[in-house]
Amino acid sequence: MIAEALRLLRIRKGLTQAAASKLEGAPDCRTLSHWETRRKSPSYGLLRSYLTSLDLDFRDFQGALEQVEGTAPKRLQDGLEKLEQRLDKVERNLDKVERHLRQEPAARDPEAIPARRRGRKPTSRVIVNG
Known about the structure:
It is a single chain. This protein has 130 residues and is mainly α. It is built from six helices and no strands. Helix 1 crosses helix 5 (58-102) and helix 2 (17-24) packs across helix 4.
């Protein structure tokens, strides 16, 4: 949640990671990027320094945390709905495969399928070498 809150505060200020890092006096934006992608967490002192460089304080940070925490259940619900849709699609495809496998072997034989359906052009001429 800290990563999302830091990103939210930076975006509210209308800053890129590079611009926010320059305000803080960092040589590049890697540190901030690591904080926002959860690779690393800022120490209390670094967090305080960062918030101060954005003209923010811990009340602002707390408000951002509360806002991000409020959106977490919605994001989880959206993710679950997408997974359910994918699962439904997989189940429908599995049903098709099972129906196909229950058919008579002759019906499944690729040679029994007309040439046009197999992607080949039908041959109607007989070529004789001679």
